[in-house]
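Record 1 of the preview.
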Amino acid sequence: MGGNCWLPVTPLLPGSLCLGGIVSAKEPNQAQLGLGAWAIGGSDWGSPQDESTSRRTIALAVERGITFFDTAPTYGDSELLLGRELGPKRDQVTLATKCGPLDDPSDSLEESLRRLQTDYVDLLQLHEVGPDFEGSLEKLDRLRREGKARAIGLCNASASQLVKAHEMVALDTYQAPYNLFDREAEQRHIPFCRKHGLDFLAYRPLASGMLTTRFASASPPTFPEGDHRRMIWWFKGQELSRRLEVIERLSKLAADQAMTLSAFSLKWVLSRPGMAVVLAGARTPEQLEENLSARDGLLDPERVSAVDEAVFQVFRPALAMEHALAEAAGWEPRERFIVEHLDGLTSCDSIAAEWSDGSEPALMGAQVRQFVDQLQAAGMVEFR
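->
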């Protein structure tokens, strides 16, 4: 570990509206289940599937009451598929798409409108924060005023960037990953959205498929070539072991409720305060049906507490040992900050949020956990 201890940077993955108050972000019982279209679009999710299966899945979603569809130009053929299937049903659905941080929002939207077979989208989002995100947001705001986007939002930003963005253009939504493992949005983003009336859109509610029956075992998952999950850090190493241990506990809780692991995990997200739309992906009608079963009521407080306890027992806060504190005095500010805050009580997500409040680049809870793994291997932390 020496004075230049390296903290790995985990990149963000790409992944209701305030449209007249269709969904309130302040009432948890009004959260709706939406369809996240990255997986069905076929890009970076292994072998492509035939269009007929994808369109049957989309059609079933509408038939079963799904009205919110979230896509992006980078999600393979998802915009084309949604356009072909939902074009005749445009007035029945809410379409949300995105533009990239380096794209011209107007040009990007025009291409999306062509693929989606519509002359407007209900929500246009900036997919990630780029070097000139202020300029991009101003262009999104102009498109909103022109009526080509009924509402605008931001995705994958730090808390300070979200605050700055909303001060500039009065955002309607914010979208971020949120599931029972990855909960750093609880620290700053969800409270901000609730306070200022933004609808919070939760993507990756099943942790990229980890919280499904397929992974309800102690075996490491395998993915085909072309599947982005081959590179995701939580499918590897100590983090994988931790999550599989939690899944074993969760599977018992789900079985007690006569539910599948995925439905139980989705119901947990739908039951959390501050949710407006929970975006779950599905590539087949069978996967969609499993997701839909999560809509039948919310988890009671006792079950929510049981989930939280199952996660906490595995993701315990670390305590830095005295010699770690002494050695960290000569490290870089970010690494030193983490070690100084490992008090055996504070979560990795809380440490990341506190650092990100006043320092750049922003820190993610996942990065803190990876660093704690390094410290544990070096005998510098303990867990009580």
